[in-house]
Automatic annotation (TrEMBL):
A GO molecular function held by the record: sialate O-acetylesterase activity
Subcellular location: Lysosome
Domain Sialate O-acetylesterase: 119-325
Name of the protein in question: Sialate O-acetylesterase
Listed GO biological process terms: carbohydrate metabolic process
Task performed by this protein: Catalyzes the removal of O-acetyl ester groups from position 9 of the free diacetylated sialate N-acetyl-9-O-acetylneuraminate (Neu5,9Ac2) in the cytosol and of the diacetylated sialate residues of sialylglycoconjugates in the lysosomes. Together with the sialate-O-acetyltransferase they regulate the balance of acetylated sialoglycoconjugates, key players in various processes such as cell-cell interactions, host-pathogen recognition, and tumor antigenicity.
PANTHER family: SIALATE O-ACETYLESTERASE
Length: 470
């Protein structure tokens, strides 16, 4: 597998123990800040932080000096933490969130402003998720296209490892922000994720209400680093002393990124998750990916549902990108196809029985031989994000009559005496003959997920395909 020689992430020191709130003053959780997006109705958004054990905390939601609601709680003795669940809110804003701690005669007040309610999506994975807008096709145009999307807010988690599950984030690279050319194109493989941003932007074009995007990704990392010990144990994955260096260039110790970059977010109320990872498992535990990936999804769902006091849906929508092709010839012919197959829990499609409420964006046709970051990192992230947003519209938002998957074969018939293979597909398709050796199968534009900005259109017919067997 081709591994780029550039640095995929800033390696920060491994945190030796879980975050402790002992002695922490009155404060919000690290990611509760100005410009944030909180999850809208029907769920209630979670607000939490730290304070003095036993103190009373009153959380107030205001708009234009008018009090919308108040919630009262107490700081827990053991963790020195406090938490409230807001009543479900319609999308919109801006609002101010105020928290006041009362302990005896002492009163302290915290405020965050320009808070919106909308849908909050977490974006995670390795370097293809970590790539910034600066690195993709049409970067100059994309970076200048932010004015109309000031209600799409972005946050990027710092690259940190931990040996134990952290309660709160140890660092944030980009605090909740409105999108600008500077924070979307900050650097190469530094905040903000292009796939995450484009996915949210496409969703906003459809939904027309605020979208919150949280990027938590690290290049060159295997799925084991993003998995809890519980989910790895469920797949029979045990700690090994050696991990191949050709496919794993980032943190590889089991659970260290789950501990530091995912678990601290679990109190947050989410709409869903998108995921772009798998390259680092081509040569490491590849045959277990059909278990470790579904197990990761299940464990994340359980953890976020529990951490948000039941506000994040138990089976929240989970979208992922099926890996692109490597065109440099460094990977054997069957390794990437095996990972792609295992990404679907060996069904070949999603949703399926082992992966309910999931959606997939195919990227096998997006191989980028001339990518300066290696062909494993295609620069056409617009098509990836557009396909993801189609899946989200169909699965997460229940949009009917929306074609978001490629044609699936419903019937295969071998006519050996005639040298023919008849394929009946679930959707209308068209076969275009290129020459005597090459043919191309096309579906509707919505099926293959071509962003309108790229100006590609295709037609369709309802005829079955007959292929000559040689």
């Amino acid at each position: 597998m081709v591994v780029p020689v550039f640095v995929l992430g800033l390696v920060l020191p491994l945190i030796q123990r879980a975050h402790t709130s002992a002695g922490v003053g009155f404060q919000f959780a690290s990611y509760i800040d100005n410009y944030m997006v909180l999850q809208k109705e029907p769920a209630g958004a979670v607000i939490w932080g730290y304070g003095i054990s036993g103190a009373t905390v009153t959380v107030t939601l205001c708009q234009d000096q008018e009090i919308i609601m108040k919630k009262v709680t107490h700081v827990k003795a053991y963790s020195n933490s406090w938490m409230v669940v807001l009543d479900p809110m319609k999308p919109g804003g801006p609002y101010e969130v105020m928290a006041q701690q009362t302990f005896g005669r002492m009163n302290l007040t915290l405020r965050v402003h320009d808070v919106l309610f909308g849908d909050v999506w977490l974006c995670s994975g390795q370097s293809n998720m970590q790539m910034t807008v600066l690195q993709i096709f049409n970067a100059t145009s994309e970076l200048s296209n932010t004015t109309a999307y000031q209600s799409v807010r972005i946050l990027s988690v710092s690259l940190i490892q931990a040996e134990q599950e952290l309660e709160d984030l140890a660092g944030v690279d980009l605090k909740w922000s409105k999108p600008t050319s500077e924070n979307l194109g900050h650097g190469k493989f530094e905040y903000m994720s292009a796939v995450c941003w484009l996915f949210g932007r496409y969703l906003y074009d459809t939904l027309r209400y605020p979208i919150g995007l949280i990027s938590s990704s690290w290049g060159g990392t295997p799925i084991e680093a993003w998995s809890s010990g519980r989910s790895l144990k469920a797949c029979g994955v045990h700690r090994q002393g050696f991990i191949p260096s050709d496919s794993v260039t980032g943190p590889s110790e089991y659970s260290v990124l789950w501990n530091a970059m995912i678990h601290p977010l679990s109190n947050m109320t989410l709409k869903g998750v998108i995921w772009y990872q798998g390259e680092s498992n081509v040569n490491f535990n590849r045959d277990l990916y059909n278990c470790t990936f579904p197990a990761l999804i299940e464990d994340w769902r359980q953890t976020f549902h529990r951490g948000s006091q039941g506000q994040t849906e138990r089976l929240f929508p989970f979208g992922f990108v099926q890996l692109s092709s490597v065109l440099a010839g460094a990977v054997s012919d069957d390794q990437l196809p095996q990972i792609r197959w295992h990404q679907t829990a060996d069904f070949g499609y999603v949703p399926n029985l082992r992966m309910p409420n999931t959606f997939m964006a195919v990227a096998m046709d997006l191989g980028d031989r001339n990518s300066p970051f290696g062909s494993i990192h295609p620069r056409d992230k617009q098509t990836v994000a557009y396909r993801l947003h189609l899946g989200a519209r169909a699965v997460a938002y229940g949009e009917k009559q929306l074609i978001f998957q490629g044609p699936l074969p419903e019937k295969i018939e071998l006519l050996a005496d005639k040298g023919l293979l008849n394929l009946m597909y679930s959707q209308q398709i068209q076969v275009q003959r290129q020459d005597d050796k090459i043919f191309e199968v096309r579906g509707r534009a919505e099926t293959i997920g071509v962003p309108p900005v790229l100006g590609v259109s295709v037609s369709s017919t309802a005829k079955p395909i007959s292929l000559i067997v040689t």
